[in-house]
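In the previous lecture we treated proteins in isolation. Real proteins rarely work alone, and many bind small molecules. This record shows how such a complex is specified: first the sequence, then the SMILES for magnesium ion.
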Amino acid sequence: MRTITKQWLVVLLSVAIIPPLVVCTIDEARAQSILQEHLKNAPSASQETMAHDAVSANGHEDLDATLWVRFAAEYKAITRQTYNAAARQLSAAIADQNWTAIVDNGSTTTSPSRPNRPVCVIMDVDETVLDNSGYQQELILNNSSFSGESWARFVNAKVSPAVPGAKSFVDTCRQMKVTVFFVTNRDFRLETATRENLISEGLMRPSDPDLILSKNERPEWTSGKSVRRDSIAATYRVLLLVGDDLNDFLFVKKSNLQQRTQLAEQYRHYWGQRWFMLPNPDYGSWEIAVTKGSKNSTAAEKTRLKMETLSGK
Ligand SMILES: [Mg+2]
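The predicted 3D structure, ligand included, written as tokens:
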């Protein structure tokens, strides 16, 4: 065996102790610098009793959720699990002429049964087929929160990757002649960028007609999605609904936490059968329900309301 010379030993030790920053990409270097800043301001162990205030001052509310979506194998496992399960339902759903994923929960007058119609699935876009955790990452690194302006900039960059499993599911739908509609609360002015992002991720084809139903594309297409679902159901039999928010399945506007839980429970046999929910720990209509609908209140007020909910007040 060759003897390691002193010079080689120096080289090996130098490589081992090179600070990670030297081999970082620019983004990683930025993240490291922000992390160092946070660590500098982090509370000492004796200040742990002020944990909540420390988190507000030195961390970002969405840090854990965003780390989970971006890096946890568990996130990718659950999205694939959901899409694999959804794909397995297609054959039975196509064969049963009375099968529909559309329910009448007070928002629609249409009959849910749609025999002898072409078949389709309805999918949400954000955090269902496109993973926008890159936007959350940007907000955290800039210590900022959602704004229409930064969101539009992010969407127009068309950089969101497909959620793991989504492309395979969409491919299966195409093979089985099932049309895939996208009902999204992205504003209609972002529809071209959305379409291009979906095409670049293989979730739509350049030759596809307009299969995206965006918010405000028509006056009656507001943030509640049931009107758009009904407009599709007027000509198609809807086999499955896929989303990351209760609003992707049911009419939930202004429902409180208890009512939302009751609704999800009322349709418990639909989950994993006709309805498939993707995980989104970052945001959603659940968060508005937690903060009791105070969508425009300050960050401090929202945190107070969240703590109030957590403590059961
Ligand atoms: Mg969504």
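Summary for your notes: Residues 66 and 72 are 10 Å apart (CA to CA). The mean pLDDT is 83.
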